[in-house]
Design brief:
It is built from 1 helix and 21 strands. It is an all-beta fold and about 210 residues long. A 6-stranded antiparallel beta sheet has the order 2-1-11-10-7-8, with no helix packed on it. A hairpin with a 2-residue loop joins strand 20 and strand 21. This is FHA domain-containing protein. InterPro entries: Cell_Proc_Reg/RNA_Proc, FHA_dom, SMAD_FHA_dom_sf. It comes from Polaromonas jejuensis.
Length: about 210
């Protein structure tokens, strides 16, 4: 049974099972999946179930776009196992199948760790984090424990850091000020992060670390 695991800003995850032919997502309350954020359009995108397990996603002309693994999609896309969907400041991981057990709807589902999802680099020996280098939060360390984490100020500069099979990728998501990576301008094309890379978001610098390196 395919499922979608949604999270935002460290909040507990929501598990959604797209069992209908069409599952809509957007800010408006009549959608099947409602994300209450101005970064999400009223009718943002739609998931379509084909057969027993194939799920496609299509952007519905949203303002801020729909991203798969850091790339904005322009047409209907067939989701692959462990694809990362980014919509506004929400991250969604697609799993092509789940356990044979039916979900228990009596209690909320807690956020699954990346270890539990079996993604490479999360065995405990290698954990990613950002350390703030400037501003009032200088010295603060932020662990990257979600499938997708967003940083920045909407309208100014927002980046997403997504955890894929082969590492952590960063991309410019929103804002009029282009962020930089090691002094080079970042675009919508996702870039693989390396140990000690430095991000700059509208004057705020942060360094990327991989524990164990």
């Amino acid at each position: 049974m395919p499922q979608l695991i949604a999270s935002v800003e460290g909040a507990e995850a929501k598990h959604v099972y797209p069992l209908k032919d069409r599952t809509t997502l957007g800010r408006r309350p009549y959608n099947d999946i409602v994300f209450d954020s101005m970064l999400v359009s009223g009718e943002h995108c739609v998931f379509e179930l084909r057969g027993l397990a194939d799920v496609t996603i299509e952007d519905l002309g949203s303002t801020n776009g729909t991203y798969i693994n850091g790339h904005m999609i322009k047409s209907r896309y067939l989701l692959q196992d462990k694809d990362i969907i980014t919509i506004g400041n929400f991250g969604i991981q697609f799993l092509a199948s789940s356990t044979d057990e039916q979900p228990d709807t009596r209690e909320p589902t807690n956020l699954m760790s990346l270890d539990a999802l079996g993604l490479p680099g999360t065995s405990g020996a290698l954990q990613a984090r950002l350390q703030m280098l400037s501003g009032s939060s200088a010295g603060l360390e932020v662990p990257l424990v979600k499938a997708v984490t967003t940083f920045g100020q909407p309208g100014v500069a927002v980046v997403s850091i997504s955890h894929r099979r082969d590492g952590y990728y960063v991309a410019h998501m929103d804002g009029s000020t282009s962020p930089t990576l090691n002094g080079q301008r970042l675009g919508a094309e996702a870039v693989l992060l390396a140990h000690h890379d430095v991000l700059n978001l509208a004057g705020t610098e942060m360094k990327f670390f991989l524990k164990g390196r």
